[in-house]
Design brief:
The complex is a heterodimer. By secondary structure, chain A is mainly beta. Chain A is 11% helix and 33% strand. Chain B has five helices and 14 strands. The chains are: A mainly beta, B alpha+beta.
Chain lengths: 284, 241
């Protein structure tokens, strides 16, 4: 078990998401940057379904009540065990009563902590991913105690490590497919969308990232239709958002583009004010 | 009805689209194809999301989008004409008491009606559940009387309580969980519309019909107690065609 001493800014448990309930209006959820979350699990030889802890901007602090192994991946956070700095992107052994502190990141938004065997919080509708009104909590709080598997017999390759993939964090290209309403936009608008350097707006969250720079163009509302994480919506007033993991399942704005899975992960790590541009890839 | 078009929707999903429209015939076609896809392609399909006149099909990893689109196109050419089905009409109790109906007077004033006329016009139709979205279990309903259409509030409320029955533009619905919202609240329903303990978790499903039944504040409390104790039985009738 591990006890939360300080929850950090917004820390939650996430796995690959809650599939099968979107037709009921339940968001998919899951790790914002699935690439980094998968990397943390891989370092511990966990199943790809194992639940990890996701934190952002100000990391959490915990005390472990049992020995285990951990791995931290994702944004450039700093972490210490009992005030001794540890290396990220590497399996690290934890002893009983160790205190893990995760600080601010130098770059990126989201960090992931995997624990051997995964966090064993409750499974609701097939997933451990936190979501308001579906799981009991939407974020971790001080005093929360989380269970994890206590088998430490598994062989951990201690020398295995992943260095931070600079491209994943620094590349400004966000790869997109044309969205369902892309062809309905005037050619001139299509060009503007692809040629404009865009900025990540404040008010970006697990539900959607606000994209600034397309205020001069707009698109009609549509009859409410399915959307998914990575759908880029443009409103009649020229507001542009990219739906992220906690997005609703349907929406009434023009779906101009659709991000690749990789691009969603890259975008998730872009901070407010960072610049990006859309790079169109055609369906084969 | 014209054949729907099928196109990719990102890397691992496809979108089946009919002519954009809010009507029963289109919805019947959407739900028929949804059923067919779920029954025929269990190995390929992760889940589906229906809406008014389109259906998203999310594919499992490794399924080739274009192969799937080709297979499905052939299959859809041979789809039998939709049979008229028997649907259920659920009776949804609503207390229109001003205590809950925070905006019923505004709705009445906007439309030059009395509050009793608002209640009468709101409880008269049988509404169709087109699909669920926005909030877990939230029904997109068709059938609101034109005389009740009221623009959304200029400043949305930070919290609209679960069970609130409201009107937003041309639509009416029930907030199935507490949420920020800009619709005009005209009543409150004591039912539980989404529960992770239940299977299925949502009370309503696409294709259902509902009727709003006016109740007093006393009845509201009584039903609420029964709902919380899980002993309330929802009134139901069958509807043909």
């Amino acid at each position: 078990m591990v006890e939360v001493l300080k929850p950090g800014l917004f820390t939650s448990i996430q796995d690959k998401g809650r599939t099968g309930y979107r037709r009921l209006g339940v968001p998919l959820s899951g790790a914002m940057d699935t690439v980094s979350a998968a990397m943390a699990n891989k370092l511990l030889d966990n199943s790809t379904q194992a639940a990890v802890m996701e934190f952002t901007m100000m990391g959490p602090r915990f005390q472990f009540k049992a020995p285990t192994f951990i791995a931290i991946c994702g944004a450039g956070f700093h972490a210490t065990i009992n005030d001794v700095p540890i290396e990220l992107g590497k399996a690290t052994e934890i002893s009983e009563n160790d205190v893990l502190k995760i600080d601010h990141p130098d770059s990126g938004n989201y960090g992931y902590l995997a624990v051997l065997g995964g966090f064993k919080t409750e499974i609701i509708l097939g997933s451990r991913s936190f979501y308001n009104n579906i799981t009991k909590k939407k974020r971790l709080e001080k005093g929360d105690v989380l269970k994890f598997s206590t088998t430490t017999s598994k062989k951990i390759v201690r020398h295995a490590s992943f260095s931070i993939d600079e491209h994943h964090f620094n590349d400004e290209a966000i790869e997109v497919y044309p969205g369902p309403e892309f062809d309905l936009l005037p050619k001139k608008f299509q060009k503007i969308i692809m040629d404009t350097t865009l900025k990540i707006g404040s008010q970006s969250s697990r539900m959607a990232y606000v994209i600034e720079g397309l205020e001069d163009i707009s698109a009609k509302e549509i009859i409410t239709a399915p959307v998914q994480p990575g759908t880029v919506q443009l409103t009649p007033s020229g507001k542009c958002v990219v739906l992220m993991r906690d997005a609703q399942s349907t929406g009434g704005y023009s779906r101009i583009l659709q991000l690749t899975e990789q691009a969603i992960c890259k975008l998730a790590q872009k901070r407010v004010g960072k610049t990006v541009y859309f790079k169109l890839i055609e369906h084969l | 009805m014209k054949q729907p078009t099928i196109k990719p929707f990102g890397e691992q999903a496809i979108l089946i689209e009919w002519k954009p429209s809010v009507d029963n015939k289109t919805l019947t076609a959407v739900l028929q194809v949804k059923q067919l896809v779920l029954q025929t392609y269990t190995k390929e399909v992760l889940e589906t999301v229906p809406a008014y006149s389109s259906l998203a099909v999310f594919l499992k990893k490794g399924v080739q989008q274009y192969d799937f689109i080709n297979q499905l196109s052939k299959k859809l050419k041979k789809i039998p004409k939709a049979q008229s089905e028997i649907s259920r009409v659920l009776h949804i109790p609503v207390c229109y008491n001003p205590k809950f109906a925070l905006d019923i007077e505004d709705v009445a004033k906007t439309n030059n009606l009395t509050t009793s006329e608002v209640i009468e016009l709101h409880t008269k139709p049988t509404y169709k559940v087109y699909f669920l979205g926005f909030l877990p279990g939230f029904p997109y309903l068709g059938g609101l009387d034109k005389r009740l259409q009221t623009p959304r509030k200029q400043t949305p409320r930070e919290i609209i309580e679960a069970g609130s029955v409201a009107i937003g533009g041309t639509q009416t619905g029930v907030y199935t969980s507490s949420s920020p919202g800009g619709w005009n609240i005209i009543g409150k329903s004591p039912l539980n519309y989404f529960s992770i303990e239940k299977n299925p978790p949502a009370l309503l499903k696409a294709g259902d019909f509902i009727k709003f039944i006016p109740i007093s504040e006393d009845e509201y409390r009584k039903i609420k107690v029964e709902v919380d104790a899980d002993i309330y039985t929802i009134g139901e009738e069958a509807k043909h065609g």
